[in-house]
Design brief:
Length: 260
């Protein structure tokens, strides 16, 4: 049977997709990737991502301020984000990419937490889920999520933490993003985690053009490779491939497209 996938995290507003949108979407569709969620990283990309979602039926938008760009963000951009969310643009499905990062140099961690809290409150106000970035920050992120309720919850994307950390997020109602890391034999910890988590808590993603899969090192990642992430996941799980595909798609639709 043919399978349908949603790439729940793809930076389609960046090269190599920018300027080759139609061709890139044809390649994705040929692999069964029928929907792609595009999160922003900075405020100057809000309009571009909303326009992409308007122009191309497979694309959906998420708007947020990414912690890696903390030095570029200011409070007026939070006001800009709030105004856009209040307008309820068509095909806006999440607040993201937002989160915490303790791997970057000069993380300004207090400011990161303030910015994240403000964006979580916006997600709650406008009844949207969140797409969360977390590097070396799973425990403080979970603690912050316990203090700031987001009714629609969301996903911790590109997860590579421990089983107990993943379970902590799941207990809070959050899903876990499964990406190309599991295609690497050396990623034994992450592969073991993805094998053990409830299938109902997993979402498929690429993080393209970042996070290339094994065999594609040095090349831009692409949304059609969500199908290869799926294949790698099937090798780790006890369920049938059909069950895994159906549940992953159900998870994506339930979280991001509840009216679909």
């Amino acid at each position: 049977m043919s399978r349908c996938f949603t790439d729940t995290h793809c930076h389609f507003d960046f090269p190599p997709f920018a300027g080759n949108e139609a061709g890139s979407l044809q390649r994705a569709a040929a692999a069964g990737v029928q929907r792609i969620i595009v999160p922003t990283v900075t405020a100057d990309r809000f309009a571009r991502v909303l326009q992409l979602a308007k122009d191309y039926s497979p694309l959906y938008a998420a708007l947020g301020l990414h912690p890696l760009y903390i030095a570029q963000h200011h409070d007026q951009q939070l006001e800009q984000l709030a105004a856009l969310l209040a307008g309820k643009p068509d095909k806006l499905v999440a607040v993201g990419e937002i989160g915490l990062d303790l791997y970057m140099p000069a993380p300004q961690f207090e400011r990161q937490q303030q910015l994240l809290t403000a964006q979580l409150k916006l997600a709650a106000r406008y009844d949207l889920p969140v797409i969360l970035h977390s590097r070396r920050s799973h425990d403080p992120l979970a603690a912050l999520l316990r203090r700031t309720e987001v009714p629609r919850c969301g996903v911790v994307h590109g997860f590579a933490g421990s089983l107990s950390q993943a379970q902590a997020f799941i207990r809070l109602g959050y899903s876990i993003g499964v990406g190309g890391t599991i295609s690497y034999e050396r990623a034994q910890k992450t592969r073991a985690v993805m094998a053990q988590l409830p299938l109902t808590s997993l979402l498929l993603e690429t993080d393209a053009p970042d996070m290339p899969l094994a065999g594609y090192q040095g090349q831009p990642n692409r949304p059609e490779r969500a199908a290869e992430v799926f294949e790698a996941l099937c090798l780790l799980r006890c369920e049938s491939a059909d069950e895994i595909a159906a549940q992953l798609q159900h998870n994506a639709e339930t979280l991001f497209m509840p009216v679909a």
